[in-house]
Amino acid sequence: MTTSRRPECTVPFVEVSITEFDLACLPETGAVFDRLLALRPARVVVDLSGCRHIDAAAIGLLLDVHRQLVRTGGVLALREPNPRIARILQAAHLDQILPVHAGDAPSAAGEAAPPPAVAEGPSSGGPARPDAAPRQPAYGRATVTVRS
């Protein structure tokens, strides 16, 4: 008996914008990362431009996501941390493990990334629509965008 196996779906690029990144919001943020890792992305960029605080628990989550991506051939990068967060990342030596971009990170093709389609968080239940206006996700701490 032959069992047909469905090919795994992969997404070339996922961007996560985080505004709060500490122990208090770790369950929600971890759930977002779990969902996006299930897509087997080739590249994940965490936009920290709107984030004012990061703690050791958040750094641990970033390292865990990095390890999981490396296992599947993916890459995790950080974008636009403010100077205070950049110093924290340097003190934790995270900047030696992950690429940290001061400005817009290039897309997987190396060009400027197009405007993102917004994929709402765990409570949306639906796929991203390119024509949809960006909305705040139900949990209010992270916005996930998927670019193809």
TrEMBL record:
- Taxonomically, the superkingdom here is Bacteria
Q: Which residue stretches belong to region Disordered?
A: 103-148
N-terminal signal peptide = none
Q: Tell me the Pfam families matching this sequence.
A: STAS (PF01740)
Q: Where is the composition biased (Low complexity)?
A: 103-138
CDD domains the record matches: STAS_anti-anti-sigma_factors (cd07043)
Q: What stretch or stretches form a coiled coil here?
A: none
The protein in question is named: Anti-anti-sigma factor
